[in-house]
Amino acid sequence: MVLPNQLTTLRIILTPIFFFLFISDDPLLKQIALVIYFVAAITDWYDGWLARKFNYITNWGKFMDPLADKILTSAAFLAFVILGVLDLWMVIIIILRDFYVTGLRIYADIQEKSFITSKLAKVKTFSQMIFIFYLLIVFTLKTVPFLYSNFGNTFDILTNRTLIYYVMLVITVFTFYTGVTYTLNNKKLLKQILNYESK
Fold first, then answer.
1. 76: closest CA among 39, 29, 156, 22?
2. Quick check: 155 and 164 in contact, CB under 8 A?
3. Domain 3-198: which topology?
4. Distance CA 158, CA 161 (A)
5. What does the alpha-carbon distance between residue 186 and residue 136 come to, in Å, rounded to a whole number?
6. What is the pLDDT of residues 51-105, one digit of tens each?
7. Burial of 53 per CB tally in 10 Å (0-12, 13-18, 19+)
């Protein structure tokens, strides 16, 4: 197993550790969870860079790398649902869309078929990641007594329930829209899958 694939595996292993630490009531465990998430996110960037630079491209990596990304992102969203920060219905839409598109991409790569990508999807991914990092940082730093005692009003504004709801709503609608565009742009691939399944 080449190094990029090892990093992908590490990211998958770190995901449940992050999840269970972050949903705990212990502020220290939440802070450790934040560090773990950052490490996992760095492996996402680094394994992609290694794979491209040294041509460490494998079928396993094509399958697991995007899947590991979605698992990590989904775990973060679900953790905030459990903590009462995000609404479940929005997170379900995002997770279903992301795994649907990821599945299409993986199928296309394995079958060596064309898959039409979208620049909007990159914006979608970037917006999701920025929002997740934002939530992780502000809600984790809010658990630090010294910081909250000095900047409590600021943290209360940054974690305002209404603000978070509408930002998440925009991200959810945008994510769903990119899923629709992927479906329309890859109708030929979907027909091939449906024809294969019907045999």
1. 22
2. no
3. Four Helix Bundle (Hemerythrin (Met), subunit A) (1.20.120)
4. 9
5. 34
6. 666 666 666 666 778 888 899 999 999 999 999 999 999 999 999 999 998 888 8
7. exposed
